[in-house]
Write a structure and sequence with these properties.
With 143 residues, this protein is mainly β. The protein contains 3 helices and 9 strands. The chain has one domain: OB fold (Dihydrolipoamide Acetyltransferase, E2P), CATH 2.40.50.
């Protein structure tokens, strides 16, 4: 069985590309930081952190494109994929997480529709938050 579940944050804006053809398929990739809370904190109070390369496809990639940005906290589930290739005569190995499902772990602030900057108080900002939706793949939705 090849199953991995992680909780962490995006360390960058997701990169989304679409395949060419009659029905383009979306592919999103991003780096994901996961703190190791089983270890001691450093002098600055931070846990040691592991970083993972993540990829998702189709509708899930479109959701990531629309709703995720650097710092978004997620619970992701998927599988570990080993990649290898040759570069300058040397075999290079890498791993990535192929995401099957994800869940938003924090409420997000609704984005303003216009380009003008508006000042809001903390109370107004709290009123603009949306609940964090869970996202399931088509196979999970059929169950």
């Amino acid at each position: 069985m090849n199953k991995i579940t992680l909780t962490g944050r995006l360390t960058e804006e997701p990169k989304v590309t679409y395949s060419a053809g009659a029905e383009p398929v979306a592919r999103a990739s991003f780096n994901f930081a996961v703190p190791d809370m089983s270890m001691k904190r450093d002098d600055e109070g931070n846990y040691p952190t592991d970083f993972f390369r993540c990829t998702c496809w189709s509708k899930l990639a479109e959701i990531v494109e629309k709703h995720c940005s650097k710092g978004t906290k997620l619970l992701i589930s998927g599988r570990l994929k080993n990649n290898n290739y040759e570069k300058d005569g040397q075999k290079v190995y890498s791993n990535e997480i192929v995401i099957d499902s994800l869940e938003f772990l924090e409420a997000r602030v609704a984005k303003a529709q216009d380009s003008q900057a508006q000042e809001t108080t903390a109370a107004e900002s709290a009123a603009d938050t949306e609940p964090a939706p869970a996202v399931k793949t088509q196979a999970e939705a059929a169950d």
